[in-house]
Design brief:
This protein is α/β, with parallel strands linked by helices. Helix 2 runs parallel beside helix 4 and helix 6 packs parallel to helix 8. It is globular. The two termini are 46 Å apart. 42% of the residues are buried.
């Protein structure tokens, strides 16, 4: 099915800007389903040197702030340098956790296991973020004796001051797929995520040193660029198949560099003059989307509206037109957004404008914030704006019908009773035999006594919970309300509703 693209017209823009509040925020509509993610990185060293309890508290504080900001998906970096921020028998503990690669945290804990539990407790998805090829961010870094490089140095290539798996080798692809399979098998992740590092960012005057691999393996390719793209394509397809075979409900997503191709290189490319996924990083993202090898795409559109080489509005427009049949989200740079003013109103930053643009396309189903720490720190009141305006009401995840479109059964035995905690709404989980048929979350809606039930209105959502109970806001027992409960499965398919009337 081809998805229609709704482009923002000049009339619509005029309407948006006529709705400015005294706080400089744009009035907005509230989609019931929207991806609202945030990236929590490790490679910046924010956790290095922290003790176990300190890091746990740091992560809890971040998650609490992000939950308050309406974030419903956490993309957490677990594999920065072919190492692990989780317990692995395949790769060593990450230096970005303990300061020394291969050194286990003390007291012992598993950060990924901890984050999965804490995210799911808050109704957030957990996406395990891995870097596929990078092995050293600096050649000065020591590798643990157990690191795969020390067993198979022939799989690796040095480029500049960094070390990478050779993407041309099937051995590299098999090993990376092994790591992914291990994560998916042992952990209750909602997705595997890769960012923009495929073939490394080019160094001026220095080509990637794969002459030997090309001579041995590139026979049918006259163009080395086509061959390199083919190598990455094989990895993406293999990762997709690995995940589907093990746990078909686990998604596979990517967040590529913001520009696919420039018009100078391809008449179908964007009106930009920037580095290119296709030509420079050898990442044919559109192919992966159209082949169904990835389940979502979050291009990193980190520029501002009006950027001379890569205008946010133009780049977003291009991606919206080329979304294909996979969910498209937009990656936002928080700092870039708040450091640039709206070209039509110099008194405010670009968050209102960017959200208006993004939500003006039917093919764009959400956004992701980079980095999460800037939201947590409420830089330029960014978090406040999410809380009060853009994420004012909760949102379910976008649907992934190409994975599963079957809704769970309705909840059972809905009732309201007094407990030691107060007046509590409770229900029984619906029955489900298969994993993707089971309910994992519940949505609670509240309507006035005579109000028409409309569960498509997100303003009526009062809670999304993993529990089978919900504390009601009891007052004097004189006002009647209608409460409605639905069930969500792992892919956020929603059941039919179950209603109860209560006096509060």
């Amino acid at each position: 099915m081809k998805i229609k693209v709704r482009r923002i017209s000049s009339v619509l823009f005029a309407f948006f800007f006529s709705c400015l509040t005294v706080y400089g925020q744009l009035q907005t509509f509230y989609p019931k389903r929207e991806f609202r993610g945030a990236w929590i990185q490790a490679v910046n060293g924010q956790f290095r040197g922290m003790g176990t309890e300190q890091m746990k508290q740091n992560l809890i504080d971040q998650l609490n702030a992000l939950e308050e900001a309406g974030i419903n998906a956490i993309i957490f970096q677990v594999r920065p340098e072919a190492d692990a921020l989780y317990q692995s028998n395949i790769e060593p503990w990450s230096r970005y956790l303990t300061g020394v690669q291969g050194k286990a945290p003390s007291p012992f804990w598993d950060p990924m296991e901890f984050m999965i539990e804490e995210c799911h407790k808050r109704g957030m998805e957990f996406h395990a973020w891995i870097n596929p090829y990078r092995t050293k961010t600096s050649m000065a870094n020591d590798l643990a004796p157990s690191h795969i490089y020390n067993r198979h140095p022939e799989w690796f290539l040095k480029y500049g001051n960094q070390l990478f798996f050779d993407p041309a080798l099937q051995e590299s692809r098999d090993y990376i797929a092994l790591v992914v399979g291990d994560i998916v098998t042992r952990y209750d992740v909602d997705a595997i995520h890769m960012d923009d590092y495929f073939y490394p960012y080019p160094i001026q005057g220095l080509d990637f040193p794969d002459d030997g691999s090309y001579a041995r393996l590139g026979g049918k390719f006259n163009d080395r660029g086509d061959w390199r793209r083919h190598n990455v394509n094989l990895l993406i397809e293999q990762i997709h198949k690995t995940i589907r075979k093990l746990k078909p409900w686990v998604k596979f997503g990517v967040s590529p560099f913001g520009v696919y191709r420039n018009q100078l290189n391809d008449p179908h490319g964007s009106d930009t003059r920037a580095l290119q996924n296709y030509d420079d990083l050898y990442a044919d993202v559109l192919l992966w989307v159209n082949k169904g090898w990835v389940d979502y795409n979050i291009p990193q559109v980190y520029w501002h509206v009006g950027h001379p080489a890569a205008d946010y509005a133009k780049v977003v427009d291009w991606w919206a037109k080329h979304a294909g049949n996979r969910p498209l989200f937009i990656g936002h740079s928080v700092m870039n957004t708040v450091q640039n003013t709206d070209p039509r109103n110099k008194n405010i930053n670009q968050l209102p404008l960017k959200m208006a643009i993004q939500r003006g396309y039917q093919t764009i189903l959400g956004s992701c914030q980079w980095p999460a720490s800037t939201v947590v720190e409420n830089v330029a009141n960014y978090k406040d704006a999410l809380v009060t305006t853009y994420h004012k009401h909760p949102a379910l995840m976008p649907l992934f019908p190409f994975i599963d479109d079957k809704s769970p059964r309705k909840v059972r035995r809905v009732k309201a009773n007094w407990t030691s905690e107060g007046y509590v709404l409770s229900w029984k989980s619906p029955r489900g035999k298969k994993e993707m048929d089971k309910a994992v979350q519940y949505v609670v809606y509240c309507f006035d006594d005579k109000e028409t039930i409309d569960i498509e209105n997100p303003e009526k959502i009062v809670g999304i919970t993993t529990e089978t109970s919900f504390l009601l806001p009891y007052n004097d027992g004189e006002t009647r309300y209608q409460y409605v409960v639905t069930a969500l499965d792992r892919l956020q398919n929603e059941s039919k509703s179950k209603r109860i009337r209560v006096k509060l």
